[in-house]
Structure formats: structure tokens, C-alpha cells
């Protein structure tokens, strides 16, 4: 039986990196779609997690907050077990947490590369593995969804470490799709273009500083070259995730779903 074959009275999703930006938007969107949501982020973001939880309550949804470092195996497995303990089951894992440092190749220290891979790759791996084990135990399928990027499809200057991590996420996702399909579990990643969040503001600041130009200039340049004349919003990405979590995506698996406004064509 797959997720699309059943009509559960309750559907439960985990969202990592849920305290702000894309993760916050995904959490709110899934709540509007009827999901009960386990909100996960670093303990330093606990106040912001509580704000998201309150916003979900305002729209009539239910959520729990579970501080989690996705690089720590025990914490990720505890995230899944606590979600099931509090909300009863797990149907969707959204491994959204990630970091995006900007650093020239020749200046990048191995420690920075290790940190990028620890969060972006190890974090997705652990979330997928822990969630899949629970979904297999439940026997009713599930959805694994992770944050990738157009940077997981092509590499750019000064972000080689980040791009390499997103290529790895795409490979992990394809492997999960191939291995877990027999359990009715799909696996897909979402690949946004520029999304105007606080994280992107930091990226813009670093890039414009390197180029010696005014902060915000690079962001505007990306708006100008997009066929739709704008960059993505967190809500744009949340819409794609909501689709991947829905019954309409029951036969979509192993894919890198682009959300680009047409600035990347394949």
C-alpha cells in the first residue's frame, strides 16, 4: 500500500530547518494542507520555532517543536521517535535544513568543507534513513523530500563546496528512490533558484563584497535575468513541497524538481 492508496484521518510531517525562511513557509503550507507538523531546528532557534508553532495554531493546525541538530545521529533518530510519540505516526520527512557558505576554492579550508557536508549531506542522509525506517515499520508508504538547489545541477564560482554538497544530496535522493520504492516510499528533492530569505541576504553580502559593489546589487541582477522578473519567495518553494507531499505526486520519485521561474531550463 502506498501513501496515495490510504485515506488516513491524520497525516504527519517533519520539517527540519523550520524556524525561518523556506522551512517556516513549508511548515505553514503543510499545516494548511491538513498535516500535523513536527518543527525541528537548532536549539538556538527555539524562540523562532515557537513563533512558527503559534502561527500554525492560529490557522487551526497542530504542531510540536523538537530542537534538533541534524548532524547528530542520535538527535535525528530522537526527532523521529518523539514525533511518533507526540503525533502518532510519520508520513512525510522534509529534510530542509542546510547552510550555504560563500568561499573561493583556493581559500576554502577542509574544515569548512567538512561542515558543509555535515549539515547538507549527512543531515539529509540521517533524516532519510531514520524516517524511512519508521515508514517501513508503519507499512503504509511515505514521502522523503529534501532541499537541493539549482546549485545541485550546475556549479558556480565561490560556492564549489556548497554545490558539491547539493550534487551529493541529489545522488542520495536517487538511491533512496530506488531502494525504498518497494515500500511505497517516494523520494524527491526541490531545486530552487534564488529565494529571497535572510540566508540569501548573507550570500548577496558576501558576493557583492568580493566584487566590490553595493550590497543588494547581485540580488537585483538575478531578478533582472529571470524571465518572470523576480526571484522566488519561500512560499513558491513551499508550494512545490506541498505537491510532492500530496497524493497527486504518488508516481513522482527520484526527481530533482526545479523551482526557477525559467532562469534554468533542462
UniProtKB/TrEMBL annotation:
It comes from the Eukaryota. It holds the Pfam family adh_short_C2. PROSITE patterns: ADH_SHORT. GO terms for molecular function: oxidoreductase activity, acting on the CH-OH group of donors, NAD or NADP as acceptor; quinone binding. Keywords: NADP. One of its GO terms (biological process) is fatty acid biosynthetic process. Gene3D superfamilies: NAD(P)-binding Rossmann-like Domain. Signal peptide: none annotated. Belongs to the short-chain dehydrogenases/reductases (SDR) family. This is Diacetyl reductase [(S)-acetoin forming]. The lineage of its organism: Eukaryota, Fungi, Dikarya, Basidiomycota, Agaricomycotina.
Amino acid at each position: 500500500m502506498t501513501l496515495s492508496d490510504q485515506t488516513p484521518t491524520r497525516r504527519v510531517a517533519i520539517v527540519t530547518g523550520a524556524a525561518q525562511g523556506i522551512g517556516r513557509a513549508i511548515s505553514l503550507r503543510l499545516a494548511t494542507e491538513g498535516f500535523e507538523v513536527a518543527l525541528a531546528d537548532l536549539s538556538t532557534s527555539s524562540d523562532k520555532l515557537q513563533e512558527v508553532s503559534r502561527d500554525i495554531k492560529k490557522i487551526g493546525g497542530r504542531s510540536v517543536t523538537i530542537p534538533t541538530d541534524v548532524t547528530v545521529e542520535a538527535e535525528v533518530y530522537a526527532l523521529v521517535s518523539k514525533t511518533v510519540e507526540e503525533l502518532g505516526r510519520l508520513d512525510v520527512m522534509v529534510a530542509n535544513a542546510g547552510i550555504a557558505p560563500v568561499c573561493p576554492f583556493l581559500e576554502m579550508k577542509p574544515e569548512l568543507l567538512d561542515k558543509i557536508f555535515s549539515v547538507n549531506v549527512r543531515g539529509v542522509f540521517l533524516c532519510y534513513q531514520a524516517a524511512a525506517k519508521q515508514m517501513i515499520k508503519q507499512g503504509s508508504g511515505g514521502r522523503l523530500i529534501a532541499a537541493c538547489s539549482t546549485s545541485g545541477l550546475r556549479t558556480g564560482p565561490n560556492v564549489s563546496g556548497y554545490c558539491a554538497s547539493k550534487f551529493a544530496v541529489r545522488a542520495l535522493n536517487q538511491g533512496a528512490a530506488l531502494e525504498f520504492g518497494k515500500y511505497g516510499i517516494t523520494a524527491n528533492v526541490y531545486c530552487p533558484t534564488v529565494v529571497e530569505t535572510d540566508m540569501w541576504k548573507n550570500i548577496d553580502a558576501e558576493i557583492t563584497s568580493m566584487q566590490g559593489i553595493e550590497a543588494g546589487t547581485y540580488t537585483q541582477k538575478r531578478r533582472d535575468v529571470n524571465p518572470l522578473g523576480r526571484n522566488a519567495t519561500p512560499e513558491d518553494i513551499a508550494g512545490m513541497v506541498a505537491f510532492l507531499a500530496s497524493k497527486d505526486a504518488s508516481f513522482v520519485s527520484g526527481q530533482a524538481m526545479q523551482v526557477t521561474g525559467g532562469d534554468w531550463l533542462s
